[in-house]
Amino acid sequence: MNQVRINEKDKVIVVGVGLKTEPITEIKENLIELEELVTAAGGEVIGSTVQVLPQWNPSTLIGTGKVQEIKEMVQESQAQLVILDHQLSGIQSRNLQEQIGCKILDRSQLILDIFAQRARTYEGKLQVELAQLLDQMPRMVGAWNESLSRLGGGIGTRGPGESALENDRRRAKEKISMIKKKLEEVSQHRAQHRQSRRRNEIPSFALIGYTNSGKSSLLNRLTGSQVLAKNMVFATLDPTTRKVFLDEGPPAVVTDTVGFIRKLPPQLIEAFKATLEESAEADILLHVVDLSSVNMERQIEVVEGLIKEFKWEDKKIIHIFNKVDVAPVERQFRVKHFPRVFVSALTGQGFDQLKKLMADSINEMQTEVELYFDRTNEFKLYDLGREAKIIRKEAATEGTICVAMMTPTLMNKWKEFLVK
Ligand SMILES: Nc1nc2c(ncn2[C@@H]2O[C@H](COP(=O)(O)OP(=O)(O)OP(=O)(O)O)[C@@H](O)[C@H]2O)c(=O)[nH]1
Ligand SMILES: [Mg+2]
Question: Which regions in the chain score pLDDT beneath 70?
């Protein structure tokens, strides 16, 4: 399938667009983020422009005057690529490509491209491929990219004519269902792991948050792991689960997963369902916020919007304000979210409080119960100690009495030893 992509070192012009009803500051902030995305994808931003419109232009999204202005910018700067900060239809892309005379991408396509560059695992690659196919389906138009081939655009420039269009659609549909099937298999395998964790009732946390907020760095410091943590958006695509030992609570697991961003392409959300399920299954969410970011508030809003969309609002959420080491102190006073903790994954500051908060929230889900083990069953105390926090043990005449903290599921598992 043909696809316009960003190449390493591509010279890029970014175009911020919005309607008059949107605050201009927001349009500009979005554009800055788009520039960061271009850099993350390996491109080089050499120019930018903004247009605020009373309404969208159905044939080119932006106004004809703006199209002309961008065309001149491209000619002058020899840019290879123009990226608009808004979803484009297939027709709009084609028209812009023809009129401006270079490759055109929109924000979703750029994000998908970054995901494609980052995907390393079998599952990650499948998810990205699925997202791209889902994204392309509605964009498919006849004679796609023909104008580009006249310009000697290189890869992905030969396209089907109108007659081949139906054929292409059908092939894409077939491929989509094939990938979905493969993904199903992978996710079933992971679900089995989750089930066994469930059976043992190990409490689970999921790190969620805006991309680059420090989720992987937190996982590393919390669990002594070494997953990739890097100053780039979407460094993490695949979920990783690790054990964490909290001094004041039972052992638990923490899952690190893909980060969020504003205007996350819906196709990505659909394709990454299995990955997102890891967070959906967690008992407690750890919402990681970059306290040092000037866009902190909007980033929180974006994540909270997605929490609603995924129907996670009823979950217990701990807010972790990360990067205190580089954030202006007064910013802490602006924070209204509870429960919360200020930490630095870099220096370890605040981690004692974080662990305490995590342990407390597990303990909140638990109640104190008394169990009795007669001599023949006393060896089971060892297993119990691994699964539950034991508060005290007392020798009784024919065995041991034990007081422990348990969740309802765990109580069910140990019910034959429970003392009324
Ligand atoms: N100064 C400072 N930098 C931090 C802190 N935590 C993380 N970072 C840096 O922030 C960048 C992003 O960290 P990651 O842990 O990769 O962030 P992430 O949330 O996993 O990002 P994605 O996986 O890309 O969504 C890295 O360069 C980290 O070194 C912190 O507490 N202080
Ligand atoms: Mg990460």
Answer: 1-2, 142-163, 197-201, 420
